[in-house]
């Protein structure tokens, strides 16, 4: 049984939402991963995550909605306390929400918490084999929470909020905390944490055992784990001197699990306090623990760690989830199945250099595209599994092997050119499990450049090594903490070795006839790597990498000295290597962001991994398997599409703003009070839920007949207009309203007027009992202005654009056409069936033959008779083994296409032609509704001299307000656009195809009727006749 499946505390919290696990939660609510709008806060100051959770899990929720809203308020309040802008990703929000739930239960009644946990554990144990069962929770175990966070998933900021969360719940507790302590594995991470605390505005300092603290005991004290000892010495401190009633935070807990003394010492600090642990590598740390049974207890160290962490890990967002959500670079593994001959190994390493060179060329030749996607200058690193202050003999030997390869590459011209030629022709001599050359399909961009092998070789020497020939020189840079600069002849430094230089390493260099000399140097090559003007292309040595140093540049990783016991270290290094900023700082690969890089560019969003020896790669594969992510060779299939040319000559129309017109670029707007109904009637905010949080009981009819309130001059007398102004500036920047000017002096005009908003709230909400209550009034006033800001901007943008809307014909190069798909999956026996089907599909498409449908449960290739190109691809969202770019159809979309196809086959529409086209999100036809609306499909019907252009959007609508959501009301604004264009031969319609059944909508909005939804062109996908209803509306009602 995998350790991940034993996380009983995590499972207990998920059970409160009516699901058994994170995977089941994501199955029910897959949109939470992709909808970045959920990261926003509504005008009432409530996160959209809250709305999703309370609506989606409405029937199964075991936590009161008002309680959830209280937790949401706490999270947002704590977030505002940080002196930095933060938007929580869905998994970060869930982590913070789970912490709120647990701490509330813990401080409310530890006895009840213990009882409920053990009831749940008893049920859990009844379903697993006896040897996998966990021991009951104990009272003394409840004061510890652990968080399994993939490297790069933002655990530092989560820690900052956890500090505030604990202090909030503990403030009314009888138990007082002595100190707040952060334990780190090394000084590098201590300094990094100190800087992060300062940026968040939290008081922190490095522990000073002489007692000279800057903040007089109120700060977070940061100390390295190795300084905690039983007795105080010159460089250590006695752990007992801290007491045992501390609030303790532990970064990278696995450093302490391998050594009994370290773990015992850090656990002492919080025995009567509370502890939070954070690690990317719990499973590796547990797997490397001792398995020998203790005679007294009958348990091994591994048994004890499993029992402890299975009951304390509150949230699991390990690398498996991080990768499947599209965060970080993709990765590709250059596998070696067995130790090869010298010539084959040389080809292998040349292939690694060639892959790196390709990344460099993409970066250098496409600078604007790289800036758009936040790609940094590629860097190749060589890292090892062992970390020490000085390099050992085996690692030193690996490093000299790398250096000898560099020398050989530079000096043996003919051999290297031939190796490059063999690799590009897929004749490297190294094959995958299925017999394919490992470099197949890896050099799309080099193929696009169409260079000869000798030209590539020459360019690599000049652009990567900065020298066309000459001797490799190693310069020990005096005063630069173990740095060796690498250069060819008199060229610039192309690489740096960052290790502890020892006499053994110098002797190795001498034996290998490597030219190592000492040289005075004024600055650190290593510390300059992240600067834009750094010319360093290679970094060798892992010490700094493991101590918290990170870089967005890493694009290729060579594994050195990889043993069987370094799993935690290796996964951490790997996690740092796959870090990616992504387009719009999404941290995601472009295939998951929605705007995909062209296939030939995608190699810069990929980490290439190779090893100096075959057994290193074997160990690395095992580490990845343990993480639950692909660990073997990946097969990439490029599937061309076939256009259905019947649409050509039909003059299919779409609605666009003229190409030469851009509202943001050409127009400026000042935020003024505009009382036209089109704006003010939409500025409606309901604060009844927030009133309930603070104990105000609403009348029974508040849903249909809410009380309204208008602010008086007395209410607004103490409003801080500087804060109001800054909040609005921040808000308009978040919404990208860059051409909207806000004058602070105009804001008082809004304060003196009451006819621009409707505020639904119990009057008691604004009862003043203390001066701080005026802050509540100010918060609501800001919320109303934000809502007004949205409606004002949308009105002005649409009003301006209406004069420049035109009908344009779909052309062959339209951005909505997909020329080819990229399908990636692991090359193993488990996938053999789907691999063969995709191979057959590719063969047909390459020949221009209409392919047969593939109809597996988890993957479909579907040919539509109406779609302008084929095939259309579908993948079950839970099946992560196949990656498809551009993104595949989701459940609602594939059902709509199949239902449409089935309907037209059974009910052909006479004297008509019908065409369908998938509309790309963020790149296709969009409308400025709710900040940007891209309906999933465009459906054309040509009949009786008219062209009916229909925008169809299959989606779940449980999170939308059916009365006033802009997407649901889009049918009306689209008709306004049709009237403005006044072309009687074209009819515009829009439809929401709801995969949320109507009864679920009524559960949440009891005042909405089916007739009202029908009038808004909302059709329900669970109803048999919904396609027929759509055609009736299109052809006969308009």
Description of the structure:
The protein has a 9-stranded mixed beta sheet, sandwiched between helices. α15 (342-365) packs across α18. The chain contains 37 helices and 37 strands. 38% of the residues lie in helices and 17% in strands. By secondary structure, it is an alpha/beta fold. A hairpin with a 4-residue loop joins β12 and β13 (483-488). Residues 136-300 form the Helicase ATP-binding domain. GO terms for molecular function: ATP binding; DNA binding; helicase activity; hydrolase activity. Keywords: ATP-binding, Helicase, Hydrolase, Nucleotide-binding. This is DEAD/DEAH box helicase family protein.
Layout of helices and strands, plus pairs?
Blueprint: H1 8-15, H2 22-28, H3 31-34, H4 48-56, H5 65-81, H6 90-108, H7 110-125, E1 144-149, H8 155-170, E2 180-184, H9 187-200, E3 204-206, E4 220-224, E5 228-229, E6 237-238, E7 247-251, H10 254-257, H11 260-269, E8 274-279, H12 282-287, H13 301-310, E9 313-317, H14 319-324, E10 330-333, H15 342-365, H16 367-372, E11 379-384, H17 393-411, H18 413-424, H19 444-449, H20 453-465, E12 472-478, E13 483-488, E14 495-498, H21 503-511, E15 515-520, E16 538-540, H22 543-546, E17 554-560, H23 567-577, H24 590-593, E18 606-611, H25 614-627, E19 634-640, E20 642-643, E21 653-657, H26 663-666, E22 669-670, H27 677-680, E23 684-686, H28 688-693, H29 721-734, E24 740-741, H30 747-751, E25 758-760, H31 773-801, E26 805-809, E27 820-826, H32 832-846, E28 854-855, E29 859-862, E30 869-870, E31 872-875, E32 882-885, H33 891-906, E33 912-918, E34 937-943, E35 946-955, H34 970-981, E36 986-994, H35 998-1004, H36 1010-1015, E37 1018-1020, H37 1026-1037
Helix pairs in contact: 5-6, 6-7, 6-8, 15-18, 17-21, 18-20, 29-31
Keywords: ATP-binding, Helicase, Hydrolase, Nucleotide-binding
Protein name: DEAD/DEAH box helicase family protein
GO molecular function, one term: helicase activity
């Amino acid at each position: 049984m995998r350790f991940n499946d034993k996380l009983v505390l995590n499972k207990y919290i998920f059970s409160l939402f009516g699901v058994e696990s994170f995977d089941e939660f994501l199955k029910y609510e897959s949109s939470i991963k992709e909808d970045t709008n959920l990261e926003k806060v509504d005008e009432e100051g409530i996160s959209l995550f809250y709305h999703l959770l309370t609506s989606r899990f409405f029937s199964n929720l075991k936590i009161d909605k008002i309680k959830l809203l209280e937790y949401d308020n706490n999270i947002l309040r704590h977030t505002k306390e940080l002196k930095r802008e933060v938007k929580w990703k869905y998994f970060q929000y869930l982590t913070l929400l789970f912490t709120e739930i647990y701490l509330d239960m813990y401080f409310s009644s530890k006895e009840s918490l213990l009882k409920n946990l053990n009831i749940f554990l008893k049920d859990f144990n009844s379903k697993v084999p006896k040897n996998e069962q966990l021991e009951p929770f104990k009272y003394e175990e409840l004061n510890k929470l652990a968080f399994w966070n993939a490297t790069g998933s933002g655990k530092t900021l989560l820690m900052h909020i956890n500090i505030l969360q604990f202090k909030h719940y503990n403030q009314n507790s009888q138990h007082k905390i002595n100190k707040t302590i952060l334990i780190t594995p090394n000084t590098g991470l201590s300094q990094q944490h100190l800087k992060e605390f300062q940026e968040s505005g939290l008081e922190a300092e490095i522990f000073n055992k002489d007692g000279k603290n800057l903040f007089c005991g109120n700060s977070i004290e940061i100390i390295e784990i190795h300084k905690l000892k039983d007795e105080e010495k010159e460089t250590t401190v006695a752990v007992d001197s801290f007491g045992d009633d501390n609030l303790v935070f532990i970064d990278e807990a696995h450093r302490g699990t391998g050594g009994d003394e370290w773990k015992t010492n850090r656990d002492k600090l919080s025995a009567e306090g509370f502890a939070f642990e954070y690690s990317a590598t719990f499973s590796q740390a547990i797997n490397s623990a001792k398995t020998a049974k203790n005679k007294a207890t009958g348990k091994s160290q591994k048994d004890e760690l499993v029992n402890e962490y299975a009951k304390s890990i509150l949230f699991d967002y390990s690398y498996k989830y991080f990768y499947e959500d599209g965060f970080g670079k993709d990765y590709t593994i250059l596998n070696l199945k067995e130790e090869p001959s010298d010539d084959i190994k040389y080809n292998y390493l040349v292939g690694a250099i060639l892959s790196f060179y390709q990344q460099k060329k993409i970066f250098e030749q496409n600078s604007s595209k790289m800036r758009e996607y936040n790609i940094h200058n590629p860097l190749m690193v060589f890292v090892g599994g062992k970390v020490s202050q000085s390099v050992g003999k085996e690692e030193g030997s690996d490093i000299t092997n790398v250096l000898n390869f560099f020398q050989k590459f530079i000096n043996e011209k003919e051999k290297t050119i031939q190796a490059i030629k063999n690799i590009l022709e897929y004749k490297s001599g190294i094959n995958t499990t299925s017999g394919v050359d490992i470099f197949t399909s890896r050099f799309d961009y080099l193929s696009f450049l169409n260079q000869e092998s000798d030209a590539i070789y020459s360019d690599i020497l000049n652009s990567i090594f900065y020298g066309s020939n000459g001797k490799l020189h190693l310069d020990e840079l005096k005063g630069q903490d173990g740095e060796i600069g690498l250069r060819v002849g008199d060229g610039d430094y192309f690489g740096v070795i960052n290790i502890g230089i020892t006499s053994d390493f110098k002797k190795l260099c001498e034996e290998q006839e490597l030219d190592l000399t000492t040289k005075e140097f004024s600055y650190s090559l290593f510390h300059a790597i992240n600067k834009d003007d750094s010319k360093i292309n290679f970094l060798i040595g892992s010490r700094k990498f493991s101590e918290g140093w990170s870089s967005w540049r890493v694009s290729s990783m060579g594994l050195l000295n990889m043993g069987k016991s370094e799993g935690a270290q290796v996964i951490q290094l790997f996690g740092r290597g796959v870090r990616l900023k992504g387009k719009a700082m999404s941290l995601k690969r472009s295939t998951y962001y929605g705007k995909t890089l062209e296939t030939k560019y995608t190699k810069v969003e990929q980490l290439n991994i190779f090893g100096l020896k075959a057994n290193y790669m074997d160990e690395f594969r095992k580490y990845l398997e343990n993480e639950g992510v692909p660990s073997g060779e990946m097969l990439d299939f490029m599937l061309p599409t076939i256009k259905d040319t019947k649409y050509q000559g039909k003059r299919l129309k779409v609605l666009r703003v003229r190409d030469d017109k851009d509202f943001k670029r050409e127009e400026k707007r000042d935020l003024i009070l505009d009382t036209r109904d089109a704006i003010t009637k939409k500025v409606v905010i309901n604060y009844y839920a927030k009133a309930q949080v603070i104990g105000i009981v609403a009348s029974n009819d508040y849903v249909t007949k809410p009380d309204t309130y208008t602010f008086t001059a007395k209410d607004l007398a103490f409003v801080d207009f500087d804060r109001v102004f800054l909040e609005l500036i921040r808000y308009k920047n978040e919404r990208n309203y860059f051409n909207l000017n806000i004058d602070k002096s105009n804001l008082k005009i809004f304060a003196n007027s009451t006819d621009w908003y409707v505020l639904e709230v119990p009057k008691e909400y604004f009862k003043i009992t203390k001066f701080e209550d005026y802050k509540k009034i100010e918060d609501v006033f800001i919320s109303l202005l934000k809502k007004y800001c949205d409606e004002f901007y949308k009105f002005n943008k649409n009003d301006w654009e209406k004069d420049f809307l035109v009908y344009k014909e779909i052309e062959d190069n339209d951005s909505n056409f997909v020329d080819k798909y990229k399908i990636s999956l692991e090359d193993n026996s488990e996938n053999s069936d789907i691999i063969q089907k995709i191979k057959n599909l590719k063969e047909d498409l390459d020949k221009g033959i209409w392919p047969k449908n593939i109809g597996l449960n988890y993957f479909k290739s579907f040919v539509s008779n109406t779609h302008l190109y084929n095939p259309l691809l579908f993948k079950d969202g839970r099946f992560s083994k196949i990656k498809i770019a551009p993104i595949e159809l989701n459940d609602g979309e594939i059902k709509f296409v199949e239902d449409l196809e089935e309907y037209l086959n059974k009910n052909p529409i006479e004297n008509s032609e019908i065409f369908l086209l998938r509309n790309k999100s963020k790149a296709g036809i969009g409308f400025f509704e709710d900040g940007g609306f891209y309906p999933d499909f465009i459906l054309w019907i040509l009949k009786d001299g008219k062209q009916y252009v229909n925008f169809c959007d299959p989606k779940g609508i449980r999170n939308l307000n059916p009365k006033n959501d802009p997407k649901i009301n889009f049918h009306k604004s689209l008709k306004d656009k049709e009237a403005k264009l006044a072309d009687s031969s074209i009819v515009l319609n829009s439809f929401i195809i709801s995969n949320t059944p109507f009864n679920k909508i009524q559960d949440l909005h009891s005042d909405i009727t089916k007739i009202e939804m029908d009038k808004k062109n909302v059709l329900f996908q669970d109803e048999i006749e919904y396609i027929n209803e759509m055609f009736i509306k299109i052809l006969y009602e308009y």
